[in-house]
Amino acid sequence: MPVAVITAHGQPSAPEAPEAALAALAQEVAGFMPGWDVRSATLSMPGRLEEVAEDGALIYPFFMSKGWFTTKVLPKRLGNIQARIADPFGLDPALASLAADALRAEAAASDWPLDEVDILLAAHGSARGRHAAAAAFQFAKALATALPGPRINCGFVEQSPSIAAAAALLPSQCLCLPFFAQAGDHVRDDIPASLAKANFPGRTLPVLGALPGAARLIANALLDASADPG
C-alpha cells in the first residue's frame, strides 16, 4: 500500500493541538485516496516525522512556499529515509480557484459586488529570504485571474508592507484572507492585532488550509505527484 505523509510546522510551544488537527486533515484526505495509507506529522513534535515516514513514502509539505523548512529542515529530518517530497500546498495551481470560491461566497453573503471589494492577503513573509513573499505575490497574481474584479493587496507579518499598513488603506467592503496552511499563533494573535491596529472594517476568512475543498485539493496533488515519474 502506498504511503503519503502530510507534514506541517506545528507549534513548538504546544505541539499536541496542531498535531491532532493535522491528523484529522490526513484522515479527511485519506477519504479521497482509497488504497493509500495517509499519515501526518508536524515538525514540532519530536520524532514524529521519523516515526511515520518510510522508504518510498510521498511527503506532502503543508506549507505555503519552498522556503527554509521545506528545502532545508524537512530533508534533514528525513535523513536516510528515501522519500519523495511533493510541491508544497501554497504553490498548488488549484489553490487560487479554491480561495476564489470562498471569497466569492463571502462577498455574496454581504451583498457586495465583486468589483467593489478589496482583498487583503495576510501572509507570513520572511526577513531571511524571498521565497515566502514570492509565494504570496505569485498566489495574489493567480487569485486575480481566478477572481477578476476585486483589488488584491498583500501584507506581511515579518516584512514590509506590514499587515497593518496594508489594511489601513482599505475601504469598508474588504475581506482578509490569511495565506497560511494552519491557524497558529500568527493567525490567532498577530493578524487580528494588526487588523485592530489599522481599524480594519472588513471580515476575515479561515486560513487557506481550512477552506472547504482543501482536503480534496491535497489528495489530488498527492495522486498527481505519485503518477509523475519526475
CATH topology-level fold name of the largest domain: Rossmann fold
Q: Compute the number of helices.
A: 8
CATH top level assignment of the largest domain: Alpha Beta
**What Rg do the Cα atoms give?**
18 Å
Quick structural gist:
The chain has eight helices and eight strands, in the order E-H-E-H-E-H-E-H-E-H-E-H-E-H-E-H. The chain has helices spanning 16-30, 48-52, 68-78, 95-109, 131-146, 163-167, 185-197, 214-227, and strands spanning 3-8, 37-42, 58-61, 84-85, 118-123, 151-156, 174-178, 203-204.
Topology, element by element:
Layout: E1 3-8, H1 16-30, E2 37-42, H2 48-52, E3 58-61, H3 68-78, E4 84-85, H4 95-109, E5 118-123, H5 131-146, E6 151-156, H6 163-167, E7 174-178, H7 185-197, E8 203-204, H8 214-227
Helix pairs in contact: 1-8, 4-5
Written description of the protein model:
The chain is an alpha/beta fold. The protein has 2 domains: 3-91 and 211-227, Rossmann fold, CATH 3.40.50.1400; 95-209, Rossmann fold, CATH 3.40.50. 41% of the residues lie in helices and 16% in strands. The chain has helices spanning 16-30, 48-52, 68-78, 95-109, 131-146, 163-167, 185-197, 214-227, and strands spanning 3-8, 37-42, 58-61, 84-85, 118-123, 151-156, 174-178, 203-204. Strands 2-1-3-4 form a 4-stranded parallel sheet. It has a 4-stranded parallel sheet with strand order 6-5-7-8. Strand 1, helix 1 and strand 2 (37-42) form a beta-alpha-beta unit. Helix 1 packs across helix 8 and helix 4 packs across helix 5. The radius of gyration is 18 Å and the shape is globular. It starts with a strand and ends with a helix.
